[in-house]
């Protein structure tokens, strides 16, 4: 907990071991605090029933810092960190507050490599960064430094999606062309990721975009461009060995659960007799469970017969993948991370008559009414949205970088917000809040100087929800509640635990511009008659 502190920030008592460990209790990765500015004093609750309330990350909203962050404050902070030889990993802007409390301090949240910065020296650096804010006329924003690392998350035609009422809905979803394809380089199938979004060219050829680091090791960071059709292909495997076995095991477990339901209902029917009022309902449940088992078993047998051979799970091949790099503008400011690959889809893999283009399967995890209220918390935004009957939210258009910085949607309190979602290999469908402030990541390479990149930052929806992403979700597309494509998920930051605090993405508009600059005239608008 925090309380008023009469000491000045420059003479704050050193952070204790227990404060360093527990200051961020409640955040997914619970990073270790190194240093912070501000006047409040952290205290460990004492006495009977004492407990430490959880903290949470929130997006910032509109603030004066928006006007000076990218052009003035962030470059000055990065320069200060480098002059002090701080091995920093990321700089984010966030509100950090206690769950259930409306007030939350705006913080410049600096990540550093674990074990590289002492608390005393970190405090000196934090004060220097605070002075940058003061000089820029920003007096209500604090600086906090924490230990954190950034991780880049590493046959027959596809099936047709089915309605939620169909017991096969969840079983078929990984095998449909909706935007959650589990993919890997066929040569390194243990490195799995997610297909992000489709594009097509003027000839109607279909492509899939994913993160380059899902398919290629970082040490092989040369440009890949398959200009010669006779050269060997880098094939893309749908469902690597572990993912395929996991999918089969999911079916087996589903069959077992349905059999348990059948056993339970059969006992009730036998014990209660013909006169039992609940007999018709129990019989209906029994019949549906039996039908589901038959469908699951048929699907299992089909997969074993037709999909077990890895050659039948080849989705296509890599056509183009630029090196993972960061462009620099004319003023020397960093651009976004260029971490993408263009996969050409084998024509026989997708039945075009069944293909509906870019669409995200909203799945069965979140009921339609809950989804609508979560993604449209303000009724002023909700009037044009209708939950799709087939669960497939069609993706149309792009979220502009301007709107990423100045959202037009409203949260439940009437403040601007940008609510987003993704469906990834590891965590499935998750909801999140896109931050209005660009984040920065320091990329380290043992064979080259560090590179700073800017990132589109996504926070968890709130404390009740799991982190927005984990390893294996790299390459996922990120979309807003209106079905517009925002970006490609590439990385995340974390502290002591393996859970992600902030997800990083590259705007889709930047990727499409890069592709066109390399001669690929592609669009996300897929002609369905092709």
Description:
Strands 9, 10, 11, 12, 13, 14, 15 and 18 form an eight-stranded antiparallel β-sheet that branches. Among the domains are: 146 residues, no CATH class; 163 residues, Thrombin, subunit H (Beta Barrel). Strand 21 and strand 22 form a beta hairpin. It is of the alpha+beta class and 530 residues long. Helix 6 runs antiparallel to helix 7. The chain contains eleven helices and 29 strands. InterPro entries: Peptidase_S1_PA.
The secondary-structure class comes to alpha+beta
What is the residue-mean pLDDT, rounded to a whole number? 87
Record field, number of beta strands: 29
Q: Briefly note the CATH topology name of the domain at 355-517.
A: Thrombin, subunit H
Q: What about the largest sheet?
A: 8 strands, antiparallel
Silhouette: globular
CATH class of the domain at 355-517: Mainly Beta
Oligomer: single chain
Name of the CATH homologous superfamily of the domain at 355-517: Trypsin-like serine proteases
Low-confidence parts, pLDDT < 50 over ≥5 residues? Answer: 155-166
Radius of gyration: 25 Å
Strand proportion, as a percent range, falls in 25-35%
Cα-to-Cα separation, first versus last residue? 61 Å
Helix content: 25-40%
Describe the structure concisely for a colleague.
InterPro entries: Peptidase_S1_PA. The protein has 530 residues and is α+β, with helices and mostly antiparallel strands.
What brief labels describe this structure?
530 residues; alpha+beta; Thrombin, subunit H; eight-stranded antiparallel β-sheet; six-stranded antiparallel β-barrel; 11 helices; 29 strands
């Amino acid at each position: 907990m925090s309380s008023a502190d009469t000491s000045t920030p420059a003479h704050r008592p050193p952070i204790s071991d227990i404060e360093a460990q527990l200051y961020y209790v409640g955040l997914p990765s619970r990073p270790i605090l190194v240093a912070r500015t501000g006047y409040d004093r952290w205290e460990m609750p004492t006495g009977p029933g004492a407990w430490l309330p959880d903290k949470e990350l929130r997006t910032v909203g509109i603030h004066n810092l928006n006007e000076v962050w990218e052009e003035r404050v962030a470059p000055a902070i990065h320069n200060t960190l480098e002059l002090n030889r701080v091995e920093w990993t990321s700089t984010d802007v966030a509100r950090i507050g206690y769950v259930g409390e409306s007030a939350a301090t705006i913080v410049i949240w600096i990540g550093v490599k674990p074990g590289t910065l002492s608390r005393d020296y970190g405090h000196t650096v934090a004060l220097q960064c605070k002075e940058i804010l003061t000089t820029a006329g920003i007096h209500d924003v604090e600086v906090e430094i924490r230990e954190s690392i950034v991780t880049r998350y590493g046959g027959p035609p596809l099936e047709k999606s089915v309605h939620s009422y169909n017991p096969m809905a969840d079983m078929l979803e990984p095998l449909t062309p909706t935007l959650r394809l589990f993919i890997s380089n066929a040569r390194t199938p243990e490195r799995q990721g997610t297909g992000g979004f489709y594009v097509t060219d003027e000839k109607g050829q279909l492509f899939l975009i994913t993160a380059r680091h899902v398919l290629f090791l970082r040490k092989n960071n040369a440009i890949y461009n398959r200009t010669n059709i006779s050269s060997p292909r880098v094939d893309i495997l749908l469902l690597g060995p572990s993912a395929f076995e996991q999918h089969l095991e999911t079916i087996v477990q589903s069959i077992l659960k349905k059999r348990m339901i059948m056993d339970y209902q059969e006992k009730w029917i036998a014990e209660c007799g013909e006169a039992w009022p609940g007999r018709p309902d129990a019989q209906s449940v029994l019949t549906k469970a039996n039908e589901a088992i038959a469908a699951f078993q048929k699907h299992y047998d089909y997969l074993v017969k037709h999909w077990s051979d890895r050659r039948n799970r080849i989705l296509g091949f890599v056509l183009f993948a630029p090196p993972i790099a960061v462009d620099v503008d004319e003023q020397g400011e960093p651009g976004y991370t260029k971490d993408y690959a263009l996969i050409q889809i084998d024509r026989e893999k997708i039945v075009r008559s069944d293909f509906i283009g870019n669409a995200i399967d909203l799945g069965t995890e979140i009921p339609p009414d809950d989804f609508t209220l979560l993604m449209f918390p303000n009724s002023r935004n909700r009037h044009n949205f209708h939950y799709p009957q087939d669960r497939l939210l069609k993706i149309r258009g792009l979220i502009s970088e301007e709107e990423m910085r100045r959202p037009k949607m409203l949260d439940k309190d009437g403040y601007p917000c940008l609510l987003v979602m993704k469906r990834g290999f590891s965590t499935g469908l998750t909801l999140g809040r896109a931050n209005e402030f660009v984040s920065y990541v320091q990329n380290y390479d043992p064979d080259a100087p560090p590179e700073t990149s800017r990132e589109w930052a996504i926070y968890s929806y709130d404390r009740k929800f799991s982190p927005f992403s984990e390893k294996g979700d790299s390459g996922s597309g990120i979309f807003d509640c209106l079905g517009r494509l925002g970006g490609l998920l590439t990385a995340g930051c974390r502290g002591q635990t393996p859970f992600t605090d902030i997800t990083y993405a590259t705007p889709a508009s930047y990727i499409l511009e890069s592709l066109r600059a390399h001669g690929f005239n592609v669009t996300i608008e897929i002609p369905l008659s092709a």
